[in-house]
Amino acid sequence: MIRVGDGAATSSSARLSATALGSAIATTSRDAHLHSTSSQWLREKRLGAGLTIVPTPEIQDPLASVMKNPQLAEERRFCSACGEPVGRARDGAPGRTKGFCSACGTPFDFAPSLTPGELVGGQYEVVGCIAHGGLGWIYLARDRNVADRWVVLKGLLNADSTEAYDVAVAEREFLAEVEHPLIVEIYNFARHAGAGYTVMEYVGGRSLKDLRAERRTPFPPDHAIAYLLEIMPAFTYVHDRGLLYCDFKPDNVVVQGDTVKLIDLGGVRRMSDMTTPVYGTRGYQAAEVQQAGPSVASDIYTIGRTLATLVLDFAGSTGVHEHTLPPVDETPLFARHDSLHRWLVKACHPSPDDRFLTVEEARVQLLGVLREVVALERTGSGGATTSAASPLFGVPPADGSGGPLSWDELPALAADPTDPMTSWVAGVNLTDPAARMDQLALAPRRTVEVLLAEARAALQIGDLARVHDTVSQILALDPWDWRAAWMEGLAGLAGGDAAAAAASFNAVYGQVPGELAPKLALACACEQSGELGVAHEMYAVCARTDANYTGAAAFGLARVRLARNDLDGALDGLDFVVPTRGSYGDARLARARLLIGSGRGLPALAQAAEVIDDAPVPARMRTQVVVEALQRALDHVLVHGPEPDLRVAGAEATEPSMRDALEAGLRRLAQLTESRRARVTLVDRANSVRRWTLR
C-alpha cells in the first residue's frame, strides 16, 4: 500500500531550501506579452476532466429563484461612496431602506426600483428580484420580443440621465461582443424610468458560494479543482480579447447541470483602461491592484484565492490571511496535498511577476495537481495504471532498479516549440557531446533552447563549470526560466552535491507544481542527501499518479523504506512494478532477495521462491534465487526442525527433501555457469549436500 508521509514536519517540501528564481534575482518586471495565452492547449471538455466525478445540482425553475419579499439584510447595507454602514437599526427601530449617509451625505435606497409586471425598454417584462449586487437589485424578466425567453436585468452604473446612459452603454457595449460558452451572454442595454440596465442571459443553477454554504464544510479538493479547471478557459478567452475580469469569486461561478458559467461581468474592463473604477472584493483582490491597477496576474490571484476559499475553512481570508495562506503545519489539507499547496502559493504570490504567467499555464499545472489529488484519494493499494503526457518533460528512461536515478536517467526537458531555434537545435544530432558543443557554439542565435542543449552536452562530458556558466546566461535572459534551475539540479547530481540538487529541483517544483518530473528528481536528490521523509513523499506521489513513473518511484520507495527499517513497506513498494514494465523482473528478484535475507523463517523463503515463478528473469538468476532460498531453508530445518506441511521451491521443508532439491538446484546452476572454476565449485557444493555423503 502506498502511504502518505510521516506528516508535514518531515515530508513537506515547503521546509526545504529552494534555488532563487524570478523576482528574487530579476532586475526588471516580467513581460507577459512575450508569452502565448492560447486557450487551445490541453483543453478538457467535461467537468472533472475525466478524472473525477463531481456532483451536479439540478437545473432550477427560474420562477423558484424569485424572492417573495426582497429585502437587503442590514449587515449588507453600506454607502456606495464612502463604504460606511448605512440603514442600520437604532434604538430598537429597524434600519431605513432609504436615506442619506451620515458620514458623507450620499443618498442610498435599498428598495427595489422595479416591480413585477413593469415593461423595461418596451420589451422586458419584470417578474421579480432574484439577488442584490454591487449595482443594486438584479431582476428576472421575460423577453416579450424573443419567445418569452428568460433574461436578467442588472443596473448600469452612472446611467441616471439620457446622456449618462449613452456614455455608460458606450463604455460597456464591448461586453456584448464577448461570446463564449462558459460566459454569461450580454443581450442588450435598456433604459427605463431614468435608470439604465444591462440585459443578460439567465443562467439557472447554483453559485459555488451557495453550494459551499450548503455544505457547511469545504469542498473535497478534487471537486473544487474540477470547478476551477472548467471555468479557467473563460479567463483565457477574456484575456485573449484584451480584457480583464477583475472581480472573480465563488459568487460568480454558477453550476448548471454538468456545466459551469462565469456570470457578473460588471467588473470586466479593457487592459488598456486606466481611468474607470476597478471593482474587486476584499479577500480575493491582489494587494497591488490599488496602486498598479488590475492585470492578468491579478486575475490569476483571484482564481487562486477562490480555490483556497473553496477547499479551506478560510475564516481569516479577509483578516489575518487577507493576502497570505495559512501555514502548512496548521493546515492538514496542505500537509496531505503538497502540490495543491505549492500551486496556491504560486497563484497567490505577493509579487505579480512570480505568479503563473497566463491562466492557461495555471490551468495545465492545476490539471496535474488534480491527477495527484485523485490518485491519493483513490481506493485500492496499487500504483498508477494510467499515464498522461506532459508538455514540459519526457518520461523517465530508466526505473533505477540498481539505485537512485542518475542525472541522465531523469526525464528530459521537452523542446519549447515557441523558441525560434528549436528546429535548428534538433538538427544538431551529433552523438559525440564535445563535437555537439562545438556546433552549438555556432548557432545563429543564442536562445534558451541553444543554451539548454549546450548545458546538457557539458553535463555529458563532465564540464560542470560550463553548465553553471550556461545556467547564468539563461537566467540573464529570463530570471523566471525554471529550466535553468533544472539544469543546475542535474549538475548537482552529476557532481555529487545532492543537497544543492535538492534545492534546485525544489525550486522547479514550486514553478511547475503539477509536473511529476521535478518530484521524481527531488526524491532522488533527497534520498541521497538524507531527507528521507521528503524523498518518501515524492516517490509515493509519482508511484500512485502516473504509470510511466511507477517503476522508478517504486524502487525508490523500497530503498527509502528499507533505510527506515520498514521491510514490509519495501516489499509493498516493489509490488507496484507491474508486469508491463521492463523492470518487472528486477523487482521480482529484489523482492525475493529481501525475503531471503529477512530472517522470517520458512514462510518467507517459500514466498521468495514463488515470486520469481512468473517473472521474466534469466534462467541463471532464477536458479540462483531458488538455490539461495533452499540453502537458507535447509539451514533453518537443521536448527529448528522440519515443517512437512510447508514447501519451498516445491520441496517439503524436511531435511531429505531440502537436500535433494538443493543438490538439483546447484547442479542446474552449474550447467548455466560459464566459468569452469565456478562450475566445479557448484558441483562440489552439490556433492556436499547429497544425502548419501552423510551415511
UniProtKB/TrEMBL annotation:
Any Pfam family matching the protein: Pkinase
First and last residue of the signal peptide: none
One example GO MF annotation: protein serine/threonine kinase activity
UniProt keyword annotation of Transferase present: yes
Enzyme class: transferase
EC code: 2.7.11.1
Keywords: ATP-binding, Kinase, Nucleotide-binding, Serine/threonine-protein kinase, Transferase
All copies of domain Protein kinase, residue ranges: 124-393
Chemical reaction(s) catalysed: L-seryl-[protein] + ATP = O-phospho-L-seryl-[protein] + ADP + H(+); L-threonyl-[protein] + ATP = O-phospho-L-threonyl-[protein] + ADP + H(+)
Alphabetical list of PANTHER family matching this protein: SERINE/THREONINE PROTEIN KINASE (PTHR24363), SERINE_THREONINE KINASE LIKE DOMAIN CONTAINING 1 (PTHR24363:SF0)
Protein name per Swiss-Prot or TrEMBL: Serine/threonine-protein kinase PknG
Organism of origin: Myceligenerans xiligouense
